[in-house]
Specification:
The protein is mainly alpha-helical. It is built from 11 helices and no strands. Helices cover about 60% and strands about 0% of the residues.
Length: about 210
């Protein structure tokens, strides 16, 4: 990419950020949690499941397993029963058990606040780790879920399909202080306007900045 093209892309990215700030100034994590551990569990459960469903499931789960020690003691079959409605419950249960074991063995039962340590936990990839960093520890993190990936490509912020590569490009376009909020804003816009199957381009205030409309 030429210097001039890079400059124009950055300027358009900044304009997109400004409009998202206007549209969704208070965007935030839609998962309900009180502790970093609860956010870790909720984010693992949210894979291929809606946040609304996760929020219905976690109160009963956290009543029985409020922390890593409680989750480790919870029988696997009981854990599967509690999270069944989130889908892929057997795999999620195994991952959560493995994460609890690692937290107790390596971190005194506490969730670490370093990317390299988080991704060693069961069921935790970069997306989940970034969710935890940004929302539990207020550290810069840019989670790339399906909404963020889709909007990044549609808005011409990235051509990549691999979430790690999309994350790298987005982090290069925006200041770290904006990463967490911007991630929530892109997710909200993806849910409300720029949906996967039927984007509402006619009523999208980002249309003038979208390559599809330029």
């Amino acid at each position: 990419m030429s210097r001039e093209s890079r400059k124009k892309k950055v300027q358009r990215a900044e304009a997109i950020r400004d409009e998202l700030n206007r549209l969704y100034p208070d965007a935030s994590c839609s998962l309900n949690f009180q502790t970093p551990f609860q956010l870790l569990v909720s984010t693992v459960l949210s894979a291929q499941c809606t946040d609304e469903r996760v929020n219905l499931v976690t109160p009963a789960l956290f009543a029985e397993a409020p922390d890593a020690a409680g989750l480790q003691k919870l029988p696997l079959l009981r854990l599967e029963e509690l999270i069944r409605s989130t889908g892929f419950f057997r795999n999620k249960a195994r991952n959560l058990k493995a994460a609890a074991d690692s937290l107790l063995r390596d971190h005194g039962g506490e969730v670490p606040c370093q990317m390299e340590e988080l991704v060693k936990l069961g069921g935790v990839g970069r997306k989940t780790a970034n969710v935890i960093l940004g929302n539990a520890f207020q550290l810069p993190g840019f989670p790339v879920d399906t909404h963020v990936g889709r909007l990044s490509r549609r808005l011409g912020l990235s051509r990549e399909s691999d979430p790690v590569k999309v994350e790298k490009e987005l982090c290069g376009l925006f200041d770290p202080d904006s990463w967490v909020l911007l991630g929530h804003q892109l997710i909200q816009h993806g849910r409300q306007v720029c949906s996967s199957r039927k984007p509402d381009c006619e009523n999208c205030s980002l249309a003038e900045l979208c390559p599809k409309r330029l």
